[in-house]
Predict the structure.
Amino acid sequence: MRMRPTAEGGGMATKKSEKRQRNKTVHIRLTDAEHAALLAAADNAGLTLGAYMRAAALGSPGPRAARKPPVVREELVRILSQLGKIGSNVNQIARAVNSGDDPNGLSDDIKAAVVALAEIHAAAAHALGWKPGMDA
């Protein structure tokens, strides 16, 4: 544990984050199926694997357990696929508008739709943990 001088100048004080830091590890052996089941259960509970294991063993995930919203991966992938198809249709319409065929002045609506599609795509990709540029 590192110590730092106190403002008063005399003794040494420990940082709060160092006092609360978990510093012990427990190692267990699991089959691939057991590991997958634990990861799925933790994800369904909205917890990290470590917080889920603490909750199972100790009855509480801990005071600062990382809670995360459960993500239905397959549904997000399906949504991203549909967004790609919608984006293709919007691009075809935009191409027609840009060539001079702009029925009812839709060009501003199309631009807004393209921006909205990009924002939805970015949010779903972020929820999946994808890096920019990755696709389904």
Q: What stands out?
A: The CA atoms of residues 33 and 43 lie 15 Å apart.
